[in-house]
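Before relying on records like the one below, remember that each one covers exactly one chain. Contacts with other chains, cofactors or solvent are not represented anywhere in the record.
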Amino acid sequence: MRARYLAIWRKLQARAPLEPLEAVIASVIEDHPEYHALFEKGEVALAEEWSPEGGQSNPFLHLGLHIAVREQVAADRPLGVRGVFESLARAASDPLEAEHRMIECLAATLWEAGRSGVPPDEAAYLERLRRLKC
């Protein structure tokens, strides 16, 4: 997947046409200029590691969570996630800030699922989202 991000970065730089999924990924990359230097490293970026123990966050994971939230909102799955997003985006006056708040809930839900070895609990995820202050 990292190689895919890098290929899309290169297409963005060349102003080459993008496939629909590439356009979603490109939009997330464009929304995060703090990661552009990473993509400028080219192939070197593919091998980098980030350690949560060292206080580092994985930019590829971060971007992937944004993509997941955007897909959830577009499909309104789980049912109600679009309404939560719209409320958060209105309150923050910034859709990206709304996504950042939502990805914290998504990451926690995915972590719990991985720890317990069961699929993510959509009801618990929605409850986390609904508890976010608008």
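Residues 95-116 form the longest helix (22 residues).
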